[in-house]
Amino acid sequence: MHIFEVGCGSVNDAELKDILLTIQNSVINLHDEVAETKRSLHDEIVETREDLHNEIVETKESLHSEIEGTRESLHNEIEDTKENLHNEIEETKENLYGVIAGLEKSVRNIELTIENEISIKIDALFDGRVDEIRHRKENMETNAKVADLEMRVDNLEKAIMAS
């Protein structure tokens, strides 16, 4: 039997064996705990990996569904906008046709008014020219009568003077 001095007292072989056995048991327990912790961590990592994978798959599916919904919504919005624009264009065309028809009617009314005014002016000019011709004729006739009367007066004066 060996005796060791540890700290303040001496320790014999049996106590050392007990201490060594306790240390070995502690090392074994520690080794088991480390192995258990490793397994537990490995299981947690595998479980976390699966959870993350499932979350990624769900997120992908959710995003895919959202993208499809957005795509469909945008498609519908584009179709509605196209239809609204088509309707607005057709309505504008109809309005323009109405405006054009109104303008054509206005132009025709203006043409008729101008034709009437021109006809009135032509009639007035024609009547004026006819009046002028008539007055000239009357003046010529009057001048001829005056000349005839002057000639008669001259003949009468000559006859009176000759008598």
Topology of this protein?
Blueprint: E1 4-6, E2 9-11, H1 13-162
Describe the overall structure.
With 163 residues, this protein is mainly alpha-helical. It contains one helix and two strands; from the N terminus they run ββα. The N and C termini lie far apart (218 Å). The model has no long low-confidence stretch (mean pLDDT 91).
In short:
With 163 residues, this protein is mainly α.
Please name the defining characteristics of this protein:
163 residues; mainly alpha; two-stranded antiparallel sheet; 1 helix; 2 strands; 4% strand; rod-shaped
* Alpha-beta classification: mainly alpha
- What share of residues are in beta strands? under 5%
Please tell me the overall pLDDT: 91
User: Biggest β-sheet, characterized?
Assistant: 2 strands, antiparallel
Number of strands: 2
What is the terminal-to-terminal distance? 218 Å
Q: Gyration radius, to the nearest Å?
A: 66 Å
What is the count of helical runs? 1
- Structural shape: rod-shaped
Name the helicity range. Answer: over 70%
